[in-house]
Amino acid sequence: MLGVVASLLWTGATAAGQLRDPGALTRWGLPIATTVHNLSLATVVGALVFAVVILPKDLKAHRPHTGNAKTTAGKPRAEHPAFTRIMALAAVAGCVWTLSAIAVLVLTYSSVSGMAVTGTNDYTAQLVFFMTQLAQGQAWLMVVICAAVATTLVFGVRSVSGLAVPLVLALLSFVPQSLIGHSASSADHTGAVNSLFLHVTGASLWVGGIIALVVVSGVLGKITAQTLQRFSALALVAFAVVVGSGVVNAAIRITSWHDLFYSSYGQLIVIKSVAVILLGVIGYMHRSWIIPRLSGGEKSTTTARARRLLWQLVFVELLIMGITSGVAVGLSRSAPPQSRELPVEALTPAQILTGYPLPPELEFSRWFTEWRMDWLWVAFALIAGAAYLAGIIKLRRRGDKWSVLRSVSWFVGLLSLVYITSGGTSVYGAVLFSAHMVEHMALMVIAPLFLALGSPVSLALQALTPRRDGSRGIREWILILVHSKFSQLVTHPLFAAANFSGSLILFYYSPAFGLAMRYHVGHELMIVHFTITGYIFVQSMIGADPLPRRAPYPLRLLLLLATMAFHAFFGVSMMMATSLLSGDYFGNMGRAWGGSALVDQQTAGGIAWGVGEIPTLAIAMGVAYMWSKSDARETKRKDRAADRNKDADLDAYNNMFAQLAARDATIDPNQRGRTPATTNPSAPEAPAATQGETR
User: Least buried of 200, 495, 567, 640, by fewest C-beta within 10 Å?
Assistant: First the structure.
């Protein structure tokens, strides 16, 4: 709280307004309520993370399973005291989060309108209008709904799988917060929103985890070092995300070194950066000195000294984090030194529709020179690449091998995903239907093809150590997801093929297309959906990762042929169309170069046909190759079996024909050709396992 008060006084954000002043209650109450909201939300996130992936639920250690939490006698398992305490923390923090979110909503309207908080009917009616019709009010209303639903689930759900739902809701509440404020008005809207979302998510995981660790420390007992080690790995990722996203977000808002060091806003950023660096140093001390001594079985005096230092550092961490959170709230209530808002009188049609100036005329070189970084997918690629590399290193240290081709395929897939979401395809995909179709097809068939061939699930299952204390780590959650009913549905070959093909029609011939083009969240959801859809389809065709069910090779080829035919039909229908899809968007772009919007759409149809067919044909060739290898392996297996039993099956098969020939020689020629009932019932039958030709 001292941090937020000091930062507000330093920047002058609590000064009375010259035109309309909402009063001291709003000027001081809003940043304080926001601080309480942020800390309580972080506590909910940290507590649920501990409950879902760090702590064991049951007191008696056992292997995690997918069934209900009952013993063999049918009695409920005794709950671990640490889990009970962390759930109590989540419940209390959830109530505070919900109430503080309501307070922020009401005080935000007071601040925006310049009206003091009252209980009059007019104020209430205007507040309802603010919540339902204006973007800032709608965002905070969504946060309140997420908080209320998540808190209710925390009270009513006790299973580990069920607690994943309120955790996801808590993380999703960062989305509306990222879409308002300085990020929404930034010239680089996409970069500011995505970097802010990553920043607050990483900070909440970090701060909330420290709070959860302190709360459960008294009942952890023997698993203190193990729990600290698990949280340390999460904190390391959160620290990297906070630092990287903070640098990006600050670079968007601060345009010069002078603004960084000689403006109150920039000075707060410097203070916040120093605090984060100090927290990183403390985290390094945890990983390099404290954790090894707590889990290394050293002398009791050394362990006791390490524990004392641990809690001293944790106290310092909480103090620095509290100050940093206050500074962050002060930054959110202060204006950057140089406004990054676009002047309204200079807006072009492209800027109104996309938020960015119209790029130069598309030439071949500009596919590779025009970039607009989507930091959300850059962060995903960096984290996924680092995790994959860590898995390979762990296998190598253990003496196991991992395919180089799979590794190359995975990193090529990540690089292609970064290019598709940040390179020329993304820049021109916002203004050209044809470029958008290139982006779409690449998301569905090119990046997923390389990612699926990288077999990340197989690597994770081999590299990660199974947990035996009843908690669920990444490996346990992967196994639960693979064997779940949902996975059985979405990875079923028929569903995967139908989803892969049908999503095109449902997307382009519904309002979803326009929403994805106009709104940032819609665009990101489009990327997520089609990337996952393509990944599941490729995985079901030629992937090596475990799946609940795989189709026979003939059915795979049939599904691929049907998919190719559907893509051809979709592309031709778009090429022959005479009306624009999302015409109010592409038809009003104001391009002075390139063909008309309708001609560009017809070009997009040809791209959907051609670009979609080539990778699908490559997948079909892969299926045919795997089929031939499977037949070759089956032939070798039968040959080895014949070598082991010295062709006993073949000899039995040949003896059967010899006996049949001998029987036929003893039958009267006049009796031949009658029904089998007149033949000798004692004639030998063909062995069931000997179906083939004589060698």
Answer: 640
Distance separating alpha carbons of residues 495 and 241, to the nearest angstrom: 36
Using CA atoms in the order 434, 436, 440, 441, what is the torsion angle rounded to 10 degrees? 20
563, 602 in Cβ contact below 8 A?
Answer: no
Residue 349 lies in a domain: no
Q: Based on the fold, state whether residues 168 and 42 are members of the same structural domain.
A: yes
Distances (CA, A) of 303 to 10, 226, 264, 267: 44, 14, 45, 41
pLDDT tens figures, 213-227:
888 876 665 556 677
What confidence score (pLDDT) does residue 692 get?
Answer: 40
CA distances from 11 to 5, 38, 330, 335 (A): 10, 20, 8, 9
282 and 225 within one domain: yes
> Do 566 and 497 meet the contact criterion of CB atoms below 8 Å apart?
no
The last residue of a domain, from among 285, 319, 337: 337
Q: What is the mean pLDDT of residues 235-253?
A: 87
DSSP code at position 675:
-
- 3-state secondary structure string, 158-203? CCHHHHHHHHHHHHHCHHHHHCCCCCCCCCCHHHHHHHHHHHHHHH
Domain that holds residue 687: 645-695
CA–CA distance, 573 with 577 (Å, rounded to integer): 6
A 10 A CB-CB count for 427 gives: 22
Which residues, listed in sequence order, are joined to residue 76 by a DSSP beta bridge?
70
Q: What's the Cα-to-Cα distance from 432 to each of 139, 348, 354, rounded to whole Å?
A: 30, 16, 11
Which of 337, 360, 384 is a domain's end point? 337
Cβ–Cβ < 8 Å for 163, 509: no
Q: What tokens were used for 541? A: 């065709």
- Whether 518 is covered by a domain: the verdict is yes
